[in-house]
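Why show two proteins at once? Because comparison is the fastest way to build intuition. When a single record is shown, students tend to memorize it. When two are placed side by side, the eye starts asking what differs. So, the first record is below.
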Amino acid sequence: QVQLVESGGGLVQAGESLRLSCTASGIIFSFYTMGWYRQALGKQRELVAYITSGDITIYADSVKGRFTISRDNGKQTVYLQMNSLQPEDTAVYYCKAERAARGASWGQGTQVTVSS
């Protein structure tokens, strides 16, 4: 059974940083594309960034240059370093694990709140 556990969310002021972590179990982590998504109140869930099994990274335009996604296959963990946070980054952040023909699994989410 796939389990994804996010951590690292919290309340920060604009301009500050946070690092989110998502640790996976029940999968061969290195084979999976890992992504971070976010959903603000009243809005649809959107892609923030993802990293493939080959370490190719893709970012949403809104976070390019501020956020960095990385992975540690030995720890089965994907990270999202978020710098220069802004109030518009406030959302619940979700981790996603995906592999072709295996479908996708989601974590339970972690709240990030940025005050102005």
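Second record. Ask yourself what differs from the first in the token line.
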Amino acid sequence: QVQLVESGGGLVQPGGSLRLSCAASKFFHDGISWFRQAPGKEREGVACMSKHDGSTYYADSVKGRFTISRDNAKNTVYLEMNSLKPEDTAVYYCALKEYCGGTVYDYWGQGTQVTVSS
């Protein structure tokens, strides 16, 4: 059984920054990722890191603003979010999928709310 626990969400003004954390019991899969879901919108994959080689992938909507990273010793993955925009408002989930190119998430956490508003 995999447990993923996100933290670090909150309210931030446009242009601000947040860092989300995800503590995992174990990273079984190669694709360590973050996705988000806003009310009335479809789930959107935000970022993914390959456990195998550390390659990273980002959605076009966050490229250049968000950075995914991992602390192997702590079994923790991070999402550094800069230059936040109101359209980044969503519940953010840490998730595992078989590989970054896949579309199926096999495990995810309870989510953490990010609200970008003045």
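One difference worth noting in the second protein: The two ends are 40 Å apart (CA to CA).
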